[in-house]
Fold:
Amino acid sequence: MTRLTCGFLFLSMLAFAPAMTHAAEGKGATYATPEEAAKNHDFVIQGEYTAEGKGLQVLALGEGKFRLIAFKGGLPGAGWDGKEKSAVEGDADKVLEVLSESKFESVERKSDTLGAKAPEGAIVLFDGTKETLEKHWKPGTKMTEDGLLEQGAHGITNAEDFQIHIEFRLPFMPDARGQGRGNSGYYVCGRYEIQMLDSFGLEGLDNECGGIYQASRPAVNMCLPPLAWQTYDVDFTAPKFDADGKKTSNAVVTVKHNGVVIHDQLELKKPTPGGVSGDEKNGAGPVFLQNHGNPVRYRNIWMLPKSATKP
Structure:
């Protein structure tokens, strides 16, 4: 992943930023865009930070409270050894104290595959235009005024063995918890869910971002802060069956989350719950982006059938 450094100017911004009046927002506030969220003091503070040999994630918990997760060696996917970390909770003053003591700098990480262009032979499933919306998605699928696909998108273009690129953005919901916090999911062939969820700063379980529900947790939790654009790059091979309908091989998937491999040649023994095409014998299936009631957004979706790459 690439990163941008904001430096110590950010610390002075925290010190003099006005306190947020949460009562005016109401409990359970949801921010679907960075412009909306920028009005929330907690959003300004939340994020990722680095210092010499250290990484820090500051997770907003609502009501002016935060969880600070410190990683030895650097951030997940960027130096952390996957073992040593610690956590503490506190208010904005506590965050400022920790940042100042260890001379942390704010960083904005971006996936190396963000903005990846569709290669030759790929099918552009969504590029922000009405043309791709109507060609590859069921009637009623919604797009925002600024050209982003909305949650609950059910594709009509099927594929069996392919590579796919999806960019997604999770909302900022500081008061929500668990499955209620920026929830969606990408169902491969409409059957196998790769979870999309605001799991920034969490453990990285099979029902959190990057997890394959009831099948496998991600090797590392690569979830970025909410409202940052994130990427899934997936290589998928469908299960195979003989003439009698007996399965001869399981589905196999490799997943990169924000450019980092989180599942490597993982066998999927069965579909996950909640999909739209549960019978594996059907072979090819569509893209399905789950609607869990949260404003998750998607862009730059393209799929490369493996048949297009064969000589």
User: Anything to note?
Assistant: Confidence is low (pLDDT under 50) at residues 5-27. Residues 92-102 form the longest helix (11 residues).
